[in-house]
Structure formats: C-alpha cells, structure tokens
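Researcher: Here's a chain I'd like modeled. Treat it as a single chain, no partners, no ligands.
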Amino acid sequence: TNTDFDKKSIVIFSEGKMHWNTFKPIIENLLDKKQPFHYFTMDIEDPCLKIANRLMDNSYIGEGNRAFAKIGHLSANLVVSTTPNIGTKGYPIPRSDKIKKLLYVSHGFDDMAFLHRGSLDNYDAVLLMGQIEEPCIRKLEELRNLPKKELIPAGLPYIDELIKEADIHKIQTDEKKIENMVNDFESSSAITLLLAPSWGEKGFLQVLGTSFIEKLAQKQYNIIIRPHPYSVKVEKKLLKSCYEKLKQFKNIQWDYNTDGSLSFQAADVLISDFSAVRFDFAFVYQKPFITIPISFSEEALQDFEIADLGTSWIEEHIDEIGYTLKENEIENLDFIIKKVLQEKRCEEILEFRNKHIYNLGESGDVIADYLIEANNIFSRKETNDYV
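Model: Modeled as a single isolated chain. Structure tokens:
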C-alpha cells in the first residue's frame, strides 16, 4: 500500500452522487496540490469511483448500517462531510471519537433554519458558504452551551461547479422569445416551468398534491417536475400517485437525473417551496423563481433549527431576488408567472449572490488549502508528541 495512506489523514465522506458537485472542486484541488486523501461513498454509482489516481483512496463503503458503522468508527485527522446530524441523538451515524476534526461543508445556499434540530452540534468546524450562517451557528452554540466551532470562510463548491458547467453550455436565451411570451398572455405553450419540490413535510407535492399542477398543464405550459433526490429514495409512493394523476398531460415531463442542469437551462421560471434549488436556479442562470410558502404547525417546527433560531434569514430576504406567493395566490399562478418574467431581475440576483457567497469560483481551492494546512498541523503535533 501507498505509505501516504497509512494514517487516515484527510477523509471525505459522501452519501452519494447527488453530492458530487460539492466534492468535485475540493477533490480536483487536492489532487492538483498532490495531497493524498480518502474518499468514502455510500453510492456505488458515485462518479468519484471512476477516477483512478494514486493520491486518492476512493472506496464504496456500502449502504445503510454497514456504512454508518464504518463512519462511526473512523479514525482520521480530518473528516469533511455534507451530512448534517452526525452524532445527533436518534440519528443513525454516530460521531467517532477518533476523528480529530469533523468539518461540515454546505450543499445548498442555506441559513440552517430548516436543517433538523442539532444538525451541526457535533461538528468541530464549518466551512461557511457566506456570512449569513455565522450568527445562526453562534446563537445555537450559546443556547445549547456547546464549544465554539471553528468557522472557515469557504464558499459553495457546488455553485462554483454549476456556474462553470453553465458557462460551458451557455444557452443564450432569446430575448425576443421572452418578449413574445410575456406580451402574448395566451401563448403559455412558449413558457417552460420547472417545478422542484423539497422532500418530506416541507415539500409542496406532499402538502398540496397535484391540483395546481393540473391547472398549469391545462393552460398549456411546458412543465418539468424534478423531485428532490431524497424524495426519490423515501417518497416513492407519493411520487407514483402524483405521476398517475398527471400522466394524461403530454406537456408534463419528469426529471430524475442527478444533474439538473438540462432542466435548469430549459426552464424560464422555477416554482419551488423552501428548497435551496431556488438559489441554484437564480445564482447560476439569473432566471426568476416563485416560492410556494409551506406553513408548518408549531409542533412540526420543533423538529427544525428554526424553533431555536426564531427566524429564517433566507425567508426574510428571499423577496429581494424572487417572488413569494401570498395566501390564496396559488389560484393566480398563471398571472404571477407572466409578472415575474416581465420583471427581469438579473442584476439584483448577481449582486445578492456576490454579496452573500464567499470566494465565488475559488471555494475548492480555498478548502483544499485549509485541509492541507490543518492536516499538517495535526501531523506536526503527532511527530512532536513522540520526540
């Protein structure tokens, strides 16, 4: 074996291919910088398993309990993961006490409000996407009397990756097409809508069903429905019943691809709930989105960090770049779609993005440098301990 791998110095742990865009820029930079590391995935289809490089020990560690046990007993200097709730009571992955530093990297533009309670309590460090997370993390630490985490201004690797890919495939939107669509209120058939619900109790498919989608389909919009990757895993029954109700419409397609870029490029407007996909769509393509707010019972809110945070920074600021439906406005969705297409808020979107994300375009490089330096510090300490 390669002696560089004798100590599990840096480990990246991924639940699977849906997080590939988060890890890809970090991996590429670690390889460029000649840093050996381990990559453990719970998904046999993870694109990382196809890469052969002597610096990277990439392994499929199985699914479910087999994988959780392996991560729960891991010995390493640094473990980077995008999985919240490692070590949280009632969650299947325990926090190994042989990990010296457990680091969280964001896989969405997120203020933590709708992460499950205790989501980052057992992490030692957070690779911050932007400045909005810091007050949330500090507030929860104080409330729960937790040790202070190390907070590293990092950025959002997967957004960097999506922007890079979009630049390669940049499909120039025909300005004329938008003008014609908006002026001719009858011709919805020229407009493509992307419907991207969250999963679980915050997903609009579970809460609202399909009746509003049927109405949009009757108006002749082209509709792409893109369920959340977790929804595909845990809500098969719900998705099947929605599919059955909508299959009569020839203008509705379902997108189950891991990579959503083709749907993003094809769509003129995105409709979602509290999903971070809204920001992917806006930040990468500068196109309009509409939020369907999902109301939670007080009891349901107790499951999420918002119960302790009190507010969601994102939901308070989202209307700077998007449109949130007010009560009963779902009945006027047709009118609102035309309205947001007319508004063209590209500049506001770019300004918001550039202000709230660290190290745009360079997060993979910044994170790789941090990991190498932190790992060297641990290794130097270890050497000194034996002297």
